[in-house]
Write a structure and sequence with these properties.
- The chain is an alpha+beta fold and 429 residues long.
- It is 47% helix and 9% strand.
- It has 18 helices and eight strands.
- It has helices spanning 10-15, 65-77, 80-103, 107-120, 129-146, 156-163, 170-189, 227-238, 242-253, 257-261, 296-303, 325-329, 331-337, 345-351, 359-371, 378-381, 384-390, 405-423, and strands spanning 4-5, 20-23, 30-34, 40-48, 51-59, 268-269, 274-277, 290-293.
- The strands form two sheets. It has a five-stranded mixed sheet with strand order 1-2-3-4-5. A three-stranded antiparallel sheet has the order 6-7-8.
- The radius of gyration is 29 Å and the shape is elongated.
């Protein structure tokens, strides 16, 4: 697509946000480019002997319209041979500068450039989940080991050193290696380094890292037998806190932390005893809207702390924003430090080390186990297919996974009511 011709003024260009290329109708060869994410830069284009030459003139933030026009006019006024000679000189100078710059580029600097690029081209939003996960792994595991080493000199041996302290966490090792590979592939494409990717599992690195025996590790949960006592303890110690209410709400509704933390009052219908969750608030958004039946005891509990003019999020911080996952999830750790010894006994025995329960494990895994617990008779009382629907999982059956409200909602309400009553069974008034 060709460049769009619009009237260039400093003020109009500052307000311009649509991605694309724009040509100055006054100055021959001067263009403004707007990339995804909104970054703007100047460039000059001129044809000599049927060959196009293009030269960057700097970012819009640093070079204003008058300066860009002055440089572009000067370049256009040069005789063809002088113009080509100028372009070649600039290329050679830039190549030398790039070579000098790249020879002293550390991995820390390279990964920051990689972050900036992802945000600029729109792959990430500033501090979105992908951005934060990447920076977290870099900060905690990668940069302390190779951050200050020159990227051009890094070897597979350096990468292997990163894995040693976290070898008992296969998923973390693999994610770190993947992030390092991404930084190297991008750096090589940008000519910041030339060597083979030292984090390539199929290269030298495979001879330095033994194959890991992947032990399936689920998120820590509470046994079905311990659940009522656990729930009563969390309620007694933390219900006065917003995060405590959110924790209990997630357990009672068998929902994920993020889904519960982003619950809004307009989604809650206490008269119909329903929580209507839109797809975008759910991990499996492709499965559509989830309607969570609220048991009578859950509705009565919510009424004890619902504000008179309730609006916005059910569980918000002082700024009206949803609580962070860590604020809610840490309650189990706080409870354990207070003298309660909550552990996932099954996983602790399997892995040979103590595994603490998690909110996700209690709200989801314990619920799923409870739904088919034979000591409570639930294996005969409830259909496992209904439990999967309560968890918003895709169910392949004669309905081909379809959600049929009249068929399933009554049975889901029966199950969610029994679950809530079981959770409250050790709570003293």
């Amino acid at each position: 697509m060709g460049a769009k011709k619009i009237k260039f003024t400093q003020k109009s260009l500052e307000a311009l946000a649509d991605q694309g290329k724009y040509s100055d109708p006054i100055t021959s060869g001067l263009f403004l480019k707007i990339r995804t994410g909104g970054s703007k830069s100047w460039f000059f284009r001129r044809a000599v002997d049927n060959k196009d030459y293009e030269l960057g003139l700097g970012s819009f933030r640093k070079v204003n319209l008058a300066q860009a026009r002055s440089v572009a006019s000067g370049l256009y006024a040069l005789p063809p041979k002088e113009f080509i000679a100028y372009i070649e000189t600039k290329k050679n100078k830039k190549a030398i500068e790039e070579k000098d710059k790249n020879s002293s580029l550390t991995f820390r600097q390279a990964q920051q450039k990689f972050i900036d690029w992802n945000i600029e081209v729109g792959n990430w939003q500033e501090l979105d989940k992908a951005h934060k996960v990447f920076e977290g792994r870099m900060r905690n595991h990668i940069l302390p080991v190779i951050g200050d080493k020159l990227i051009q000199e890094l070897t597979a041996e350096d990468i292997a050193e990163i894995a040693k302290p976290i070898w008992d966490k296969p998923a973390t090792v693999e994610r770190c290696l993947r992030f390092i590979r991404q930084v190297f592939d991008w750096s090589k494409a940008k000519r910041y380094c030339t060597q083979d990717n030292p984090a390539d599992r199929n290269g030298v690195l495979k001879y330095l890292l033994p194959q890991q025996r992947h032990v399936t590790k689920n998120r820590g949960a509470i046994s079905v037998a311990e659940l009522p006592e656990f729930f009563a303890s969390i309620k007694k110690d933390f219900e006065y806190m917003v995060s405590g209410k959110c924790f209990l709400f997630a357990v009672l509704t068998a929902t994920r932390s993020e889904t519960a933390r982003y619950a809004r009052w307009e989604q809650i219908n206490l008269e119909e005893k329903e929580w209507i969750i839109p797809p975008e608030q759910l991990k499996m958004s492709g499965n559509g809207t989830l309607i969570v039946p609220l048991a009578d005891c859950v509705v009565d509990w919510i009424k004890t702390w619902k504000p008179e003019n309730a609006e916005g999020y059910l569980f918000s911080n002082d700024k009206g924003k949803p609580l962070s996952d860590s604020i809610v999830s840490r309650l189990i750790a706080v409870s354990c430090r207070s003298g309660n010894k909550w552990i996932d006994t099954a996983q602790s025995a399997k892995l040979g080390k103590e595994v603490r329960p998690t909110l996700h494990g209690v709200a989801r895994a314990t619920f799923r186990t409870w739904s088919q617990d034979d000591s409570l008779g639930n294996d005969k009382r409830f259909d496992s297919r209904i439990a999967e629907l309560c968890l918003h999982h895709k169910v392949k059956d004669i309905y081909n996974g379809a959600y049929e409200r009249n068929e399933h909602f009554k049975r889901r309400r029966e199950m969610m009511t029994a679950w809530a009553e079981y959770c409250f069974s050790r709570v003293s008034d």
